[in-house]
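re: that chain from earlier
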Amino acid sequence: MSKPSYLRNFSIDKFNSQPKETIAIIDYGVPSEKFSQEFAGESIDISPNKNIHIGVFRDIESKMAFHRFSWLNQPTTKVDPSWVAKLWSYWVSQYGNNQDGLAWQTYTSSERLINLVKFFVANGVPNSQPDTVSILSKHGQHIFDNLEYYGPGQTGNHFLNNGRCLYIAGILLGIDSWIEVGKKIIINESKNLFNTSGELREGSVHYHLLITSWCLECWLIANAQCREEEEQFFRVIPKALSAVSFFDMPAGLPLIGDVSPDCTPSFLYSLLNGKRAGWLLRQDAGAYKTVKDLINKNKRDPEARCLDDWSRFDQKPWSVIWSKYRDGWQPYPGHAHVDFGSFEMHFQKEKIFIDLGRRSYGPKGDVDRLAISHNVLLIDGQPAYPENRAYYSTEFREYISGPPPVWESTHDMVSLFSKSFSRIKGVEYWNRNWRFSEKKVSILDEVSGQGLRRIDRYFHTLLHPKVAGNEIIVGPVKLVGAQGAQISETIYWFSYGKGQKAYTIKLSTYAQLPFKDVISILPKL
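^ sequence. v structure.
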């Protein structure tokens, strides 16, 4: 794999990967009770008297979580050191010498390195695997030789994580070559991953919190050791935390975009509120106070309604958030969905219309990325913007969808205007207008053009909808003017691989263009 120019004069090999720090060797004994753990939403039990078999996992991300030892991160996990030793010895015997399989994929190797280094530095190396430090040292060279760098505009958050894991493991083990490479990656890539307004460029709320936690972790250890790079690490943190508070909605975090298998969204909620829970529970008292103070200091200005790629509108009792990628296409590389024009709406402290999240990264989760899984409008089954691809150039995207969409916002209105549907013969433009008052929200859709077209509008909710004439009751509110409604069950994925029942309201009609219709959302009296 290629490397960025700023790493041209750096190297990691077996000669410069020898730790300066000494780790004690400990007898952890053998497990006496069964091992019960969740791996990326999939639970397993292992008896101490039975052989371990990774084939029990159905989802590839669950297998990867096993290889990453990511369960050591969860503060609610009761860690039995004897099971850590047993699982580590099993992993070494099965995968330690074969660096060609999924177990040695670079992101997975990076996560395994940092998770095990943290544990063994704190607790000691098991005497059942006395060559542990040597095996972990080989990880650094493997990661450096296979860095997840794909060039400007094509490199995502994995590369930053490669740097994070090398940096922190290097500090804990005393390996200068790892520290220097990791430091360079963190300084250069953290500023590339975030927009100027502070949010992650990749289009996922959960991933924004996750990558913010990575940056905080690197800065905290640099700050604790009074390292010179701590100032450069810190530069992205205030705006990133401000963007975190931008996503803090009245009824909770909107899971717009992908849901990461690395941790549950709830694990990162402490970055919203500063509570001693989840990610912040993993920090010592000093780090907790430092981060809590930063969270409180960098709350968003309530009057600030826009980030580079997001908009928000708050007028009691309503609160709404939109993703608004500047050219209309989902960012690539990234974790966004085909959701242009979608929104999440809260009424007081209850979620009314939601983003459904994403089940998994396998084929079963692909439907959750599609437009039909979002609160959008489709014409003849087509979304406003097709799914983005790595090989689509800026010129090609503009040829397909026309000029960038136009978003406007006033004291009581948010609107979008797009000519992207003009790729469909006879269609000219789509305009959607949300108008707010204390008593209602009106959503006006206009489609200009000619010819007969099928117009589908989708609304997804956790609340069981009930049709009453041309009204649909959705918990504390009602939709008025919702004719031709079809209601079906779906699933809201509140964490990777974990969901609960939800409902889809589909308003479908064949209309002669130009089309114009209004849906009103009012409090139920």
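The longest strand covers residues 498-523.
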